[in-house]
Amino acid sequence: MKDIYKNSRDAIYRVLTPIIAAMCILPSCDNYLDIVPDNVATIDYLFRDRAGAEQYLTTLYSYQPFIGDPASDPGLMGGDDTWSYIDQVGLRDLGDMACFNLKRSQNINSPLVNWWEGLNQGRSTFRLLRDCNIFLENLDKVGADLKEAEKERWRAEAKFLKAYYHYYALRMYGPIPLVKENLPIDAEIAETRVYRDKFDDCIDYIVQLIDEAVPNLPLVMTNSSELRRITQPIALAIKAEILVTAASPLFNHNPDYEPLKDNRGIYLFESKLSKKEKWERAAIACKNTIDTAKLTQQIELYDFSKSSYYAYYAGLSDTSKLVMTLRTVVTDRWNSEIIWGTRNNCSYWTSPKFLAAQVGISAEPRIAPTMRMVELFYSNNGVPIEEDKYYDYDNRFKAEPAPQNQHLYMITNGIRPIAKINMHREPRFYANLGFDGGYWIGNGRNLDGDATTVSSAAWPLYMLQGEPSGNSAGGIRYSVTGYIIKKLSHSEDMYNGANTDYVRTVSSFPIIRLADLYLLYAEALNESLDNPTPAVYEYVDLIRARAGLEGVVKSWTDYSNNSGKPTTQSGMRDIIRQERMIELAFEGKRFWDIRRWLLSETWLNKPIRGWNTLGAVPDDYYHVTTLSQLKFNKREYLWPISLGESLRNPNLVQNPGR
Questions:
Q1: Of 134, 289, 487, 506, whose CB has the highest number of CB atoms within 10 Å?
Q2: Measured between alpha carbons, how far is residue 338 from residues 230, 293, 331, 607 in Å?
Q3: What is the reported pLDDT for 376?
Q4: Are residues 508 and 334 in contact, defined by beta-carbon separation less than 8 angstroms?
Q5: Residue 95, class by beta-carbon neighbours within 10 Å (0-12 exposed, 13-18 middle, 19+ buried)?
Q6: 98/71 Cα distance (integer angstroms)
Q7: pLDDT at residue 341, as a whole number
Q8: Is the model's pLDDT at 74 over the cut of 70?
Q9: H-state helical runs in 104-177
Q10: Cβ distance 158 to 133 under 8 Å?
Q11: How many CA within 13 A on the CB side of residue 80?
Q12: Among 129, 134, 127, which Cα is nearest to 52's?
């Protein structure tokens, strides 16, 4: 019997159940890769008119990775930047902890977040690619009610999605089998036992698809109902990210991967381009995207004063308005900085309690930032706290009353001892993190914490054991590390009047935003040069200026004990990397960045730490506690191909170390 793949097109078939019932469903058996189309009669029916084809395109969009979803986005829960009490109390939610457990290890029998076979919070990449091909192969069958210009735009969108789904799997697995076209329905079993393509061939094909798509994509989206549809800036931004990823140490002449070859003797990481040439290619792609973004006259760095709800917060101090800009750049729906985004699913898991009556309410700060992230942000002088000549780094974990009039809008001065590590930090620290003794603007409060109108003054956070924002008696709805991710909780979220429920505001989550693109460009440019140039500093300094900090060179010259750091390629590399980890904190980027930089084995072999949340008084609470000891092996950089899939197709060479 021919090998006909069994996975049906569930999303479309659910809509067309009456039609499917009348069709002949083809037989199926075990698959090697789900790339052969099934149910041809149904496919022909779908492409009879514009409505059916548009439905198919909508389904292709629905296959997008669950970015911003804690259950399914490895970037949110798979790294060292977040932790959760679900590990301590054994709760089985957030996707049965598949993404959370990525920070420990993968396994070959049943890989987590399996985008090869579509298991354990993953989707079947090859089914997605098969369906993209079906659309591209059948679009010309649509009748005259689909105009030629619209047809070419839809074709371009499908090509981009096909490229993006290839890339998403490539980033996990390294070289994958390219699905340029579907195998015929009567393909022999031997034909389905495909090989992994060379990594550089995968990159070239993905880039080719995007380049083919861009001319027929709109520069801007004028129809509000199509805000999540693909535009030229989106396609080019993802192309830039792809080429930066390909140029990064994980994939750019990595000596650990260069020996990898298949049973034909083909080396999968063989490359014709040098390390520098790959970075040069990436830098050009980043700059082209930046220039295209400027042409839209719509994409720019976000400013809270331009938000639709700014008027409600107009009474805030300039300091607090800056913090709100840095906080709401993620959640302010479809703001000017988000090049491509999706819906934010994190508010529910990152919002604290403010009053004792709210302890039993469903929202909870289950996703907690680790002490590693607390230490990562700069001092108020804009340099790492361990480098700042004026920062008391050795005593950073000690608690004392906050100096009067030095943190008027960020800390409840003089009320109780506060950890010194929460003082004298840059604005992004206060935009990203909630902590004991800090203030929280929003959730019905629109003034600074010291406002005389107490009912409108920013919420103070009290996080000792038994206090509303802490580990309350009999409850589990608290931050296990003693910090809360403020950035992912929309300021317009509300507890209702009776404090019995939590009302979330529909908000966005960036897949890629302009600040991300600027930092990708600075990184690629720095790596392509022998020494940093003014252009490298320019795009980092644009991000720093928006964060209220001075430029890189001036900050390091005036405040760092390593003043020459920005003048060398290696020094600037470290600065750019830390700038990315700060600016894009908790946006799912760090997980992928430290992988492509080959730094996971550095960061993920250290303990996960937080405060002692069982402490009911400051002297007990302010002790750094180890919550877990992570262990990372080099083999974890790439996802494994499951043992079952390897047995079904012996041509799929396994990733190193498995």
A1: 289
A2: 13, 11, 10, 34
A3: 98
A4: yes
A5: buried
A6: 7
A7: 94
A8: yes
A9: 125-138, 148-173
A10: no
A11: 27
A12: 134
Question: Strand, coil or helix: what is 342?
Answer: strand
Identify the H or E element spanning 239.
helix 232-247
502-520 burial string, b = 16+ CB within 10 Å, else e?
bebbebbbbbbbbbbbbbb
Residue the block writes with tokens 């942000």: 377
Residue 460 tokens, joined? 């103070």
DSSP string, 164-226: HHHHHHHHHHSS----SSPPPTT--HHHHS--PPPHHHHHHHHHHHHHHHGGGS-SS---GGG
**Cβ contacts of residue 168 below 8 Å, gap of 6+?**
65, 115, 125
Give the pLDDT confidence of 249-305 residue by residue, as tens digits: 999 999 999 999 999 999 999 999 999 999 999 999 999 999 999 999 999 999 999
Average pLDDT estimate for 54-58: 95
Cα-trace Rg, the chain: 26
Beta-carbon-side half-sphere exposure of residue 493 (alpha carbons within 13 Å): 29
**Matching residue, tokens 């429920």:** 501
DSSP codes of every residue in 57-88: HHHHHHTS--TT-TTT-HHHHSSSSEE-THHH
- Output the pLDDT for position 409: 84
Q: What phi-psi label fits residue 353: left (phi over 0), alpha (psi between -120 and 50 degrees) or beta?
A: beta
Is the dihedral angle over the CA atoms 567, 573, 576, 577 positive or is it negative? negative
Condensed to tens digits (0 to 9), the pLDDT of residues 571-619 reads: 999 999 999 999 999 999 999 999 999 999 999 999 999 999 999 999 9
Lowest mean pLDDT among 90-94, 202-206, 378-382, 631-635: 90-94
Q: Quote helix, strand, coil % in the chain, to nearest 5.
A: 40, 10, 50
Measure Cα distances from 330 to 11, 239, 344, 396, 466 in Å: 30, 22, 9, 29, 31
Helices marked H in 251-394 — which ranges?
Answer: 275-296, 318-331, 347-350, 371-376
Whether the CB-CB separation of 443 and 505 falls below 8 Å is answered with: no
Percent of the chain with pLDDT over 90: 73
Q: Which helix (H) or strand (E) holds 624?
A: strand 624-629
Residues 441, 316 contacting (CB under 8 angstroms): yes
DSSP single-letter state for residue 380 = T
* CB-based contacts of 434, cutoff 8 Å, min separation 6: 352, 365, 440, 461, 469, 483, 484, 485, 486
User: Comparing C-alpha atoms, which of 373, 491, 481, 482 is closest to residue 440?
Assistant: 491
Distance of CA 262 to the CA centre of its chain: 32
State the number of CA atoms in the 13 A half-sphere of 527 facing the CB: 30
Percent of the chain surpassing pLDDT 70: 90
CA distance 572 to 564: 10
Residue with tokens 């002297």: 619
Average pLDDT, the chain: 89
Q: Which two tokens stand for residue 575?
A: 């600065």
- For residues 74 and 115, give the distance between their C-alpha atoms in angstroms, rounded to a whole number: 11
Provide the total of helices (H) and of strands (E) in the chain, helices listed first. 25, 14
DSSP states along 242-286:
HHHHHHSTTTSS-TTTTT-B-TT--BTT--SS-HHHHHHHHHHHH
- The model's pTM: 0.92
pLDDT in tens, 470-485: 987 556 678 999 999 9
